[in-house]
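Q: I'm building a small set of examples for a reading group on sequence design. Run inverse folding on the following structure and report the sequence directly after it, with nothing in between.
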């Protein structure tokens, strides 16, 4: 059974940092991409960042460029999202999503992902 588990969320002051982790297990393939999404109260889920299966391609939404960094450790089946210079508007539930099918679909399309985690809360507040 596939499991996708996020961790690392919490409460942090503006300007602070957090590192989220996403661990995937039970997959039939070792080649999969990861997308990070977030959803704030009353807002739609939005894409935050993406990393390809080999880690050579990464993407970020404009609002986090220069502040967030995505990386992966394939030996540990874990993807990280390092979040620096956090702002109150980064407050949301952050979700990790696994993509095993590749058809050229834009990484922001949520239906292109096969498995989702339960989410981890990130709150940026003083």
């Amino acid at each position: 059974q596939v499991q996708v588990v996020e961790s690392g969320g919490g409460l942090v002051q503006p300007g602070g940092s957090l590192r989220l982790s996403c661990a995937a297990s039970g997959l039939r393939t070792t080649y999969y991409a990861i997308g990070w999404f977030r959803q704030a109260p009353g807002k739609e889920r939005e894409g935050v960042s993406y990393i390809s299966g080999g880690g050579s391609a990464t993407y970020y939404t404009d609002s986090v460029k220069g502040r967030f960094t995505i990386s992966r450790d394939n030996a540990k089946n874990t993807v990280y999202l390092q979040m620096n210079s956090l702002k109150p508007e980064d407050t949301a539930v952050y979700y990790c999503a696994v993509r095993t099918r590749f058809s050229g679909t834009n990484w922001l399309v949520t239906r292109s992902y096969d498995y989702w985690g339960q989410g981890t809360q990130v709150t940026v507040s003083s």
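The longest strand covers residues 18-25.
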